[in-house]
Amino acid sequence: MNRDIEKVLFTKQQIEERLAELGAQLAEEYHGKKPLCICILKGAVPFLSALIQQIEIPLEIDFMSVTSYGSSAKSSGVVRIMKDLDISIEGRHVLIVEDIIDTGLTLRHLVDLLEQRNPASVKTVALLDKSICRTADIEANYVGFEVPNEFIVGFGLDYDEQYRNLPYIGVLKKEVYHIG
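Above: the chain's sequence. Below: its structure in token form.
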């Protein structure tokens, strides 16, 4: 897998340091509120797992599976809910945990959907922000790293279900994927 990576953007150590900072911010933000962290499957699982270890307050987790990519390298723009929440969010402080925001269409759809369920609040944390690609009117409340407009893999992010298990975040070589 490593030979398919053009360059490493963030090392395992850089990721760990940034997650410690985010965890401290989130612990302060949600002190006394017992937030519900909603992990967006599958890409955000490593991020959620590492992040919640840094949030030193009581919290709960749940999962949603949402897709707008399939096996393509480009978003289709159509958001589909593949798995919904198991826990009611009414009156809860919700924190959506996302691996990457690019167009923002998926996150905008999720926030709008969850706000209809009467939570106390809905905020978002994204490991990566590819803001140059944003088409929807949304920004994450908390962001790990800003990334360039390249195909990013590792630490949960995939191309066709591969590379999620890389301990770093890197740029996939163009010859590995085909956009067209």
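The mean pLDDT is 93.
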